[in-house]
Design brief:
Two copies of one chain form a homodimer. The first copy, chain A, has about 130 residues and is an alpha+beta fold. The first copy, chain A, folds into two domains: about 5-70, Arc Repressor Mutant, subunit A (Orthogonal Bundle); about 75-125, Dna Ligase, domain 1. In chain A, about 40% of the residues lie in helices and about 25% in strands. Chain A has helices at about 5-15, 25-30, 40-50, 95-105, 120-125; strands spanning about 55-60, 65-70, 75-80, 85-90, 105-120. In chain A, a hairpin with a 7-residue loop joins strand 1 (about 55-60) and strand 2 (about 65-70). Chain A is flat. Chain A starts with a helix and ends with a helix. The interface of A and B includes residues 88, 111 and 117 of A. Chain A binds a DNA duplex (30 and 30 nucleotides) through helix 1 and helix 3.
Chain lengths: ~130, ~130
DNA sequence: CCTCAAATTGATAACTATTGTCAGTTTATC
DNA sequence: GATAAACTGACAATAGTTATCAATTTGAGG
């Protein structure tokens, strides 16, 4: 993978905006910083970076993929109210992979967990 | 929800073809049994049935949603080789929800786990 | 530096999965 | 049987994402 100004900028903006943005949201962030990067280039780079393990692509949050600069093993929670995506630490399911191996015999290469519910901020608001 | 011939047929075919089909695959199954149901009707019913809790919509298997007649609490595994979707029993992560509640304080309404890897059949084939 | 192949960009077009529209049909209730 | 509400399905539209490809940029070697 060669260097490119655009890829560096994308990685930079994604890291500074740790809100699990979609491609569209990232494009906005970039434009706000006067980085006009083509949407094709953005998608191409996001996929390349994910492929290379430098970022994470979060599926399961239809209708569009979100992207995460945090490549540390962890899970995600999306609030049904404010739609914000939160990180969930991976130690909530310590024996998961082992248990699946035992139960199925399959070779597990990766896994993702998505939780849906109401976050604390939105629980507060509802109480008022 | 009123009765409809189409909805009954969709539920019937989905139940008999327990392979977690996509909407397109379901359409094929239906056509094979000479049930020509419009794609709009199919999607509308799948969403209604999922809404009503009579089937499950499986997100996170891009690029398209899969559907599952099994509404029992369970998870999914997709084989990177043959692309088949398998069920994974839910008892592999017994304390999951509690642990997330403890870690985050969030109200968890639902969650999904998707495992990626190689299934036993494909492991066999690779050995040859 | 200069050259050159390989990698990258981005405008445009294309594709795919899914949903909106709406007139005509079916269902259920009285 | 009449009537309102639910449902169908052809068609058009939308949204997210990828393919195409000529022009530009990058990096390794001479």
């Amino acid at each position: 993978m060669n260097y490119s100004r655009q890829r560096e900028k994308i990685l930079d903006v994604l890291t500074r905006n740790a809100v699990h943005p979609t491609a569209d949201e990232l494009l906005e962030f970039l434009q706000r910083e006067n980085s006009n990067i083509g949407i094709t280039t953005l998608y191409r780079n996001l996929n390349q970076l994910a492929e290379a393990g430098m970022i994470k692509k979060i599926d399961g949050l239809e209708p569009s993929a979100h992207f995460d600069h945090n490549t540390f093993n962890h899970y995600h929670f999306i609030c049904e109210e404010c739609k914000k995506v939160y990180d969930v630490p991976s130690d909530i399911a310590p024996e998961l992979i082992n248990n699946v191996r035992m139960a199925t015999g399959f070779e597990i290469k990766s896994h993702d967990i998505v939780f849906h519910g109401i976050c604390n901020k939105c629980k507060q608001k509802e109480r008022k």
